[in-house]
Amino acid sequence: MAQIQKIYKDTWGTHKNPEIRKNFIYNLPYMIQTFENRDYLKGLYLKALRDNDKNIKYCAISFIHEISKILGPDEAVNSFSEIFESLLKEDDPKVKEKLVKNFHEVAMVFQSKTDDKYEDSKDQKEVKQRGIKLKILDAKSKF
C-alpha cells in the first residue's frame, strides 16, 4: 500500500497526461478510505477541485459527497466548506450541475456538524432546511 501512495505522491501533480491524472482522482475516494495517513491524499483532492483542467475538476466535484462521508462531519466541514462555497459561486454551469447532483448528501454531512454546534429547536431546523432548499433552488436556477 505504501508503494501505491508513493506513486500518487510522486506522479499525480507532475504528470502531463490529463487522463492519467483524472484516473488518479477517480480512485481517490477508495484511497482516502483505505489509507490511515490521508492528509496528502486529501491535499491532492483539494488541488483537483481547483485544477485548471476542467475534466479533472468535474471528476473531483463528482466525488465530494463520497469523500465528505468518508472523512466525517468534522473533517469534511473543516476541509471542504470554503471550497464548496466557492464552487457554488462559480459561473460554470457544469460545476453547478455536478454539485447539485449530490448536494443533498453533502448537505446532510454538513448538517450533522451544524446540529452538533446548536440546539435542535424546531425553529432552527426549519431555518436550516429553508436555507439549504434556497441554495439548491438558486444553484438550479443558474443553469
Describe this structure in words.
- There is one protein chain.
- By secondary structure, the chain is mainly α.
- It folds into two domains: 1-62, no CATH class; 74-143, no CATH class.
- Helix content is 80%, strand content 0%.
- It is built from nine helices and no strands.
- It has helices at 2-11, 18-34, 39-49, 54-62, 64-71, 73-88, 93-101, 103-117, 122-141.
- Helix 2 (18-34) runs parallel beside helix 5 (64-71), helix 4 runs parallel beside helix 7 and helix 5 packs antiparallel against helix 6 (73-88).
- The radius of gyration is 16 Å and the shape is globular.
- The protein starts with a helix and ends with a helix.
Please write out the topology.
Elements: H1 2-11, H2 18-34, H3 39-49, H4 54-62, H5 64-71, H6 73-88, H7 93-101, H8 103-117, H9 122-141
Low-confidence stretches: 118-128
Q: What's the gyration radius in Å? A: 16 Å
If helices are DSSP runs of H or I spanning 4 or more residues, what is the number of helices? 9
Largest sheet: none
List the secondary-structure elements in sequence, H or E: HHHHHHHHH
Decide which structural class fits the backbone: mainly alpha
Shape field: globular
Average predicted confidence as pLDDT? 76
Count up the domains.
2
Query: What helical percentage do the residues reach?
Result: over 70%
Distance between the termini: 42 Å
Oligomer: single chain
Number of separate strands: 0
Strand content: under 5%
Give a brief description.
Helix content is 80%, strand content 0%. It is mainly alpha-helical and 143 residues long.
